[in-house]
Specification:
10 strands, 17% strand, TIM Barrel, alpha/beta, binds zinc ion, 8-stranded parallel β-sheet, two-stranded antiparallel sheet
């Protein structure tokens, strides 16, 4: 059985078909990340209706924190939503920094305030965090160092190689996307991160070379990880499921 560790379920128009195709290839759970307060609401509703297939994660994504974002009221709204639903969620996510799309210093500083508030919430409630770090990997790793006890999942890592080693030493999990089929940086993560710290994800509906990603793609990601590591796909599948249970303590698949 496979769990998709990172998917934006609220952004599909045909979610029922997407989940059906996932079940057909042995995906028993989908961890649903959110972007902003509206997306949190949609994600919770979908999870409620999904008969435990969709496991919600709530958080403010760095790209929701743009120039016009009011940090005080925006954080207040997000934290109210998080507090109200803390018993339902399996993680805080996706949260972090994005210096690729947000190059203005002022916006980057706002993202940091929000990121720290999300980390504080996760820490207080002993929840794992799902991290976005595009082109801000070093800064993200520095901030995370201040939160030594957190369970951390680094999503779709394409940053400097030495941070992979640093993350592994700190016990961070790394989740691998379908880009593993064509991206040498993603393959490098699959190769260098030990099996007990790897997860798989679709990040759907992100497109991979023009094709919309979905949870069913995790089957292929497991096979690619097995290829890269020279292992049997079935042993990778079993190991990744154990990893999911270890890091997302509230996720259990039959
Ligand atoms: Zn994402």
């Amino acid at each position: 059985m496979i769990v998709d560790a990172h998917c934006h379920v609220d952004l599909y128009k045909n979610l029922e078909d997407v989940l059906k195709r996932a079940r057909e290839v042995g995906v028993c759970g989908v961890i649903a990340v959110s972007m902003d307060v509206e997306s949190m609401g949609r994600t919770l509703n979908i999870a409620d209706a999904s008969e435990a297939m969709v496991k919600p994660a709530l958080g403010l994504h760095p790209l929701a924190v743009q120039r016009d974002f009011n940090v005080d009221s925006g954080l207040e709204d997000a934290l109210t939503m998080l507090r109200r639903n803390v018993s339902k969620i399996v993680a805080v996510g996706e949260v972090g920094l994005d210096h690729y799309q947000s190059q203005e210093r002022e916006v980057q500083l706002k993202q940091e305030v929000v990121f720290r508030a999300m980390l504080d919430f996760a820490d207080e409630n002993r929840l794992p965090v799902i991290i976005h770090s595009l082109k801000a990997e070093r800064r993200v790793f520095n901030i995370l160092e201040e939160y030594g006890d957190l369970a951390v999942v680094i999503h779709w890592f394409t940053g400097p190689a030495e941070l992979i080693e640093k993350g592994v030493r700190r016990g961070y999990y790394f989740s691998v996307t379908p880009a593993v089929t064509y991206s040498s940086k993603v393959r490098r993560v699959a190769r260098r991160v030990s099996l007990e710290l790897l997860l798989c994800e679709s990040d759907g509906p992100v497109e991979y070379r023009g094709v919309v990603g979905e949870p069913a793609d995790c089957r292929m990601v497991v096979e690619k990880i097995a290829d890269v590591k020279g292992l049997k796909a079935s042993s990778v599948e079993d190991a990744l499921l154990e990893n999911v249970k270890r890091v997302f303590k509230r996720v259990n698949c039959a």
